[in-house]
Write a structure and sequence with these properties.
mainly alpha
């Protein structure tokens, strides 16, 4: 049984269930990444105490965190909405 045969045998409800599952996963990621983004600053002093690193290491971690967000924004700017050529 090929992949096309399996796909054609799915009902509309089964296909929508996959879409809803993916949508739910995306919403969960958005929510938890947003929470993590804003709690990072509050958690950093505790992490410094627990792991025993100083301000230079904390600054490097913070810089890498923001560089990751900047990279994501710059990559997202390249994607234009609408049909692809």
């Amino acid at each position: 049984m090929g992949v096309a045969t399996i796909s054609s045998n799915l009902t509309v409800t089964q296909k929508n269930n996959g879409v809803l599952t993916a949508l739910g996963g995306c919403c969960g990621l958005i929510a938890f990444m947003g929470i993590g983004r804003f709690t990072f600053t509050a958690l950093l002093p505790g992490m410094m105490d627990y792991y025993g690193f100083g301000g230079a290491v904390a600054g490097t971690i913070g810089s890498l965190n923001f560089a990751g967000y900047l990279t994501g924004v710059l990559l997202a700017r390249k994607e234009k909405p609408g049909p692809r050529r």
